[in-house]
Fold:
Amino acid sequence: MASDKKLNINELNQRFSDFLKRKNYRNTQERYRVLERIAEFDKHFSADELYFYMNSRGDSVSRATIYSTLDLLTRCAILVKHRFQGESAHFELSDRLPDHDHLICVECGFIVEFQEESLVDVQKRICEIHGFKPVKHSLQVFAVCPDPGRCEHNRS
Ligand SMILES: [Zn+2]
Ligand SMILES: [Zn+2]
Structure:
């Protein structure tokens, strides 16, 4: 999805380094490398996808480093961790949210991001009925994808 907001890697690095300092974690170069690659990715990914991506780009990082860095990035809210039904955890930069929702194929796990203005009205109406003040929403629609070529489940 084309995002209007430009991801600012320097700002992300700053937020990450503030967090590591505050929590007394080691400030290793590898961790920033992981963050840089995630910003480059600019989409949803699982830990394994990131691992293969980084190694294909010549970064020799271990799975352990990837997992621990993803954990840290989630704890300082730079990343959001999604648990889509039946899928391994997916991550994305929280700066990409909350302006989209997710459509997930229950057969192959393929994820589509969509924007639907009317959901903002629904959120507002529901909050009004219950006397709440809206902050954000997250909708996951589970369905079956239309493209057999793209669906890993159908390909096998
Ligand atoms: Zn998303
Ligand atoms: Zn599918």
